[in-house]
């Protein structure tokens, strides 16, 4: 298959992103482990530890681009089963894997799944206590629109957290990381899913995503206060935090 990724403009990228995730859904969790060497688990654990969900009933989180449920399940765990999580994703195949996992884990009551677009959230204003998005915002065509939606559905005092690949700020690590992304990741994709091109596209999308400071500015622009970020693994990933005050 030729996806013609290199000529894709922002408006046309959503169908391609959807195709990639439809194809990989069944092997998505395995691919994550292989491609990040298991690091994505540590970054996700760190994100949820930073969120520190309260251990009381009535607290609601919306996990956007939540895919197979990794963040939502961790949040429910961290809240000792009190939090209620909504996993929202544009891709029914990813959600189907998530639903299966939720049933197997016995989380069917704590987590629900909604197929929708991050740019158009099907929720009333001020519905959630927290909004999380991990390795998802990079795939959304209009990031400013997604951020405005995040702000809208949060309650006053609500928390925004975004985990995303970012700009590596360590010499040597940046070179090793480039070599890994441009060579190893498409090859692993080829071996595990039979196709490399979707992975070349994903790597390219990481390069195009704004760096830590620029993304923090976009979050402020959407109305959030006290915007900060912290780097993980030398900036391979970064966690951005903001508050709706
Ligand atoms: N958050 C999960 C994790 O960290 O394992 C999944 C991340 S996965 C790399 C990116 C997800 O973003 C995919 O499940 C994809 O379907 C979803 N996605 C892409 N564009 C989206 C959009 N416009 N709205 C909602 N979800 C979207």
Automatic annotation (TrEMBL):
<comment type="pathway">
    <text>Cofactor biosynthesis; ubiquinone biosynthesis.</text>
</comment>
<dbReference type="InterPro" id="IPR029063">
    <property type="entry name" value="SAM-dependent_MTases_sf"/>
</dbReference>
<feature type="binding site">
    <location>
        <begin position="117"/>
        <end position="118"/>
    </location>
    <ligand>
        <name>S-adenosyl-L-methionine</name>
    </ligand>
</feature>
<comment type="function">
    <text>Methyltransferase required for the conversion of demethylmenaquinol (DMKH2) to menaquinol (MKH2) and the conversion of 2-polyprenyl-6-methoxy-1,4-benzoquinol (DDMQH2) to 2-polyprenyl-3-methyl-6-methoxy-1,4-benzoquinol (DMQH2).</text>
</comment>
<dbReference type="GO" id="GO:0032259">
    <property type="term" value="P:methylation"/>
</dbReference>
<keyword id="KW-0489">Methyltransferase</keyword>
<keyword id="KW-0474">Menaquinone biosynthesis</keyword>
<keyword id="KW-0949">S-adenosyl-L-methionine</keyword>
<keyword id="KW-0831">Ubiquinone biosynthesis</keyword>
<dbReference type="InterPro" id="IPR004033">
    <property type="entry name" value="UbiE/COQ5_MeTrFase"/>
</dbReference>
<dbReference type="GO" id="GO:0008425">
    <property type="term" value="F:2-methoxy-6-polyprenyl-1,4-benzoquinol methyltransferase activity"/>
</dbReference>
<feature type="binding site">
    <location>
        <position position="68"/>
    </location>
    <ligand>
        <name>S-adenosyl-L-methionine</name>
    </ligand>
</feature>
<dbReference type="GO" id="GO:0043770">
    <property type="term" value="F:demethylmenaquinone methyltransferase activity"/>
</dbReference>
<protein>
    <recommendedName>
        <fullName>Ubiquinone/menaquinone biosynthesis C-methyltransferase UbiE</fullName>
        <ecNumber>2.1.1.163</ecNumber>
        <ecNumber>2.1.1.201</ecNumber>
    </recommendedName>
</protein>
<dbReference type="InterPro" id="IPR023576">
    <property type="entry name" value="UbiE/COQ5_MeTrFase_CS"/>
</dbReference>
<feature type="binding site">
    <location>
        <position position="89"/>
    </location>
    <ligand>
        <name>S-adenosyl-L-methionine</name>
    </ligand>
</feature>
<comment type="similarity">
    <text>Belongs to the class I-like SAM-binding methyltransferase superfamily. MenG/UbiE family.</text>
</comment>
<keyword id="KW-0808">Transferase</keyword>
<comment type="pathway">
    <text>Quinol/quinone metabolism; menaquinone biosynthesis; menaquinol from 1,4-dihydroxy-2-naphthoate: step 2/2.</text>
</comment>
<dbReference type="Pfam" id="PF01209">
    <property type="entry name" value="Ubie_methyltran"/>
</dbReference>
């Amino acid at each position: 298959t030729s996806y013609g990724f290199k000529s894709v403009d922002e408006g046309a990228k959503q169908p391609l992103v959807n195709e990639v995730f439809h194809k990989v859904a069944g092997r998505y969790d395995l691919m994550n482990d292989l491609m990040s060497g298991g690091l994505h688990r540590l970054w996700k654990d760190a994100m949820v530890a930073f969120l520190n969900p309260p251990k009381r009933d009535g607290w609601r989180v919306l996990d956007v681009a939540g895919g197979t449920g990794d963040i939502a399940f961790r949040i429910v765990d961290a809240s000792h089963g009190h939090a209620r999580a909504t996993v929202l994703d544009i891709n029914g195949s990813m959600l189907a894997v998530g639903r299966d996992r939720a049933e197997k884990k016995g989380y069917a009551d704590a987590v629900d799944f909604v197929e929708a677009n991050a740019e158009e959230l099907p929720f009333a204003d001020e519905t959630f206590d927290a909004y999380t998005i991990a390795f998802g915002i990079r795939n959304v065509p209009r990031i400013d629109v997604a951020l405005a939606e995040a702000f809208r559905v949060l309650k006053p005092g609500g928390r925004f957290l975004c985990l995303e690949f970012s700009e590596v700020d360590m010499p040597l690590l940046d070179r090793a990381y480039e070599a890994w992304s441009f060579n190893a990741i498409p090859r692993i994709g080829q071996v595990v899913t039979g196709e490399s091109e979707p992975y070349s596209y994903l790597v390219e999308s990481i390069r195009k995503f704004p760096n830590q400071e620029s993304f923090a500015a976009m979050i402020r622009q959407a109305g959030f206060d006290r915007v900060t970020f912290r780097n993980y693994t030398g900036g391979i990933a970064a966690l951005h935090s903001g508050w709706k005050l």
